[in-house]
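Exercise: predict the fold of this chain.
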Amino acid sequence: MLFGVDYSGKKKSELEEISEYFDLYEKAQEALVVGAYLANGESGIKSILAQRRSFLEGLNVTELQTLKHLLPATTLEYRWINELEAYIDEGEAEYRLLPEGPHGSIEVKVAAGQLMQALEDVDANE
């Protein structure tokens, strides 16, 4: 083998790091889709999905695809590397369903005195 174990291990580690960043990007997209829907309805979703498509289509994954010759096939089973267009289309279909699904919530308990103090502080700052 031309490349040492250290080299292939380094490349696998770099690919895993890229994949982690990519997963974070997708989580952020989910939040943006829901936020855009709440702010602007369906047109907000279309805007976010168009930006997502533009970003993903602009990725140069050919260098990642060359790792097929170095790393085991199971390492490169990421659809965003091998089947980008299908990945984009499936993601759009899933993201369009996000506003219909369950959403997390935060429960806040405030005592009447705390609420009155907050209102007084707002009035004082105006």
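Check your answer against the key: The two ends are 72 Å apart (CA to CA).
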